[in-house]
Design a protein that fits this description.
Keywords: ATP-binding, Cell inner membrane, Cell membrane, Kinase, Membrane, Nucleotide-binding, Phosphoprotein, Transferase, Transmembrane, Transmembrane helix, Two-component regulatory system. It is an enzyme of class 2 (transferase). This is histidine kinase. Its EC number is 2.7.13.3. It is built from 11 helices and 11 strands. The strands form 3 sheets. Strands 6-8-9-11-10 form a 5-stranded mixed sheet. The chain has a 4-stranded antiparallel sheet with strand order 1-4-3-2, with helices on one face. 51% of the residues lie in helices and 17% in strands. It has 3 domains: 109 residues, Beta-Lactamase (2-Layer Sandwich); 77 residues, Helix Hairpins; 148 residues, Histidine kinase-like ATPase, C-terminal domain (Heat Shock Protein 90, 2-Layer Sandwich). Helix 1 packs across helix 5. The protein is an alpha+beta fold. A hairpin with a 2-residue loop joins strand 2 and strand 3.
Length: 414
């Protein structure tokens, strides 16, 4: 490939630039010198006139002038010296005095006529591009360019590969305390970056765990006085006051249960395994149907995928609980295509306005005006679902259902 490209470059250069071929010029000078050696003195003038037609400048000089030949010139461009050194002519008849012959600082090509005279070609063209240099130089040049491109590509790959590895580790990063996420190998700078990121992960994990333990402790410690409060409220004589107080106590108890469930994060420590996703979803639907909810399942009877069974069960249960809470009829659909499993939980409730759909995934955010009712939750169900789906590298979408209602769509890789 390099030779073909070099030949193409050589042809292009020869078509656009005046290229010097020292070997060819030397052969011409030698040929004219041979003709002059055989010609009579009276014929030499005519031969020189014919030879000097065009850009050539031949002259006959005494052979003794060859004693003044030099191999360098103070006025010669440095580029010409480098080209002669890198690409010396290796074909054709070598001229008298060699390929690098100078008289009075001017480069010439000479050929011996007889024992007393020699033929001298003066005023050689000035460009440094010569046929021999172009013939080999084009190939060398392209080889150097290709090597530079390959070296640059290798250098870029060497630098970006550890960065891509760090980016991939960051995408699947888990804040829980565990082994170092980022592999500490590579160049000194990459190792320093990996160590800094691992240190940051440990600090964040420690901070999150400390706050989680604190919240768990607070939530757990509230259960004891809440139980005592319930026992005391049950001894209140006024029925209306007792019922109102018990309702408040029950609501606080539910808040504590949901908060503890949210802080438990069992789905993060659960391992992935191959299981029947369709069977799990059908089981969830049957449980809601057994307690009197209008819920139906549509989808395959069997769908094997790689996921966390308990976490997906919890996510689908939360979605079905929300759907039965705000709608009278619920439909759960399961499908698979292009390596993704899609779970749709659709209800016929009031839906969620588009401007609130990104906020409802935040913990403790509620849109009571959009999905009103007396049995409202605490805004943790969808947050748990969003974390589980994110842990599966999936996607959670909240879509409109026509004519009314909401579709909660989970898409996870199979």
């Amino acid at each position: 490939m390099v030779i073909s490209a070099g030949s193409a470059l050589e042809r292009w250069m020869r078509s656009d630039f005046k290229i010097i071929d020292l070997e060819n010029i030397s052969e011409r000078v030698s040929a004219i010198g041979s003709v002059l050696a055989e010609a009579k003195p009276s014929e030499r003038v005519t031969i020189l006139e014919i030879a000097n037609r065009g850009d050539w400048k031949f002259s006959i000089r005494p052979l003794s002038l060859s004693q003044q030949f030099t191999t360098s010139s103070p006025t010669e461009p440095f580029v010409d010296v480098v080209v002669d050194w890198l690409f010396p002519p290796d074909d054709g008849a070598e001229p008298l005095g060699g390929w690098r012959t100078f008289i009075d600082g001017k480069r010439i090509i000479a050929a011996k006529i007889d024992d007393s005279e020699m033929l001298v070609l003066e005023s050689l063209p000035g460009p440094f591009l010569r046929g021999d240099a172009l013939n080999l130089g084009s190939n060398y040049l392209l080889a150097v360019v290709i090597l530079m491109i390959l070296f640059s590509a290798f250098a870029v790959w060497t630098i970006t590969r550890p960065l891509r590895r760090i980016a991939a580790a960051a995408m699947r990063a888990d804040l829980s305390v565990g082994p170092a996420l980022f592999e500490e190998r590579g160049s000194e700078e990459i190792v320093a970056l990996a160590r800094a990121l691992n240190g940051m992960q440990r600090r964040i994990s420690t901070m999150v765990d400390s706050r989680t333990r604190m919240l768990r402790g607070v939530s757990h410690d509230l259960r004891t006085p809440l139980t005592r409060l319930r026992l005391r409220v049950e001894r209140v004589d006024q029925e209306e006051v007792r019922e109102a107080l018990l309702a408040d106590v029950e609501r606080i108890d539910r808040l504590l249960k949901e908060s503890l469930s949210y802080l438990r994060d069992n789905h993060r420590t659960e391992a992935f395994e191959r299981a029947d996703l369709a069977s799990i979803i059908q089981t969830v639907c049957d449980e809601f149907e057994d307690i009197g909810h209008d819920i139906t399942y549509r989808g395959p009877a069997r769908l094997i995928a790689n996921f966390k069974p308990l976490a997906i069960t919890r996510a689908v249960t939360n979605l079905c609980e929300n759907a039965t809470k705000f709608g009278s009829s619920v439909r759960v659909e399961l499908g698979a295509s292009a390596g993704m499993a899609t779970i749709d939980v659709a209800d016929d409730g009031p839906g969620i306005p588009a401007e609130h759909r990104s906020r409802v995934l935040e913990p403790f955010y509620k849109v009571d005006a959009a999905r009103g009712g007396t049995n409202v939750g605490f805004g943790l169900g969808l947050s748990i679902v969003a974390e589980i789906v994110q842990d599966h590298a999936g996607k959670l979408e909240l879509l409109d259902r026509h004519p009314n209602g909401l579709i909660a769509r989970i898409a996870i890789p199979t």
